[in-house]
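== Fold encoding ==
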Amino acid sequence: MTGTFGGALEARKIAAGDGRLVTEARGEVERDGKVLVIRRIHADYYLKLDPAQRETAQRVHEMHADFCPVARTLKGCVQITTQLHMEDA
């Protein structure tokens, strides 16, 4: 998902490389019988950017999962949430 988000940012001239976009993700696992199953994934995106680009970055964040192969594959099986944290570069 980070790659899809970063690529969409770059396409809109918002730099995502060189440590500007960092992701921290965590999964929540539950037992299904005797099998551990991932039920939820949450990703926090940390993005350093020009303040003038905040609105565009927020719009990209709101739609990126719809275009992500991983998110689309897991949709309906695993709850995926993301949060964008922006910091002035």
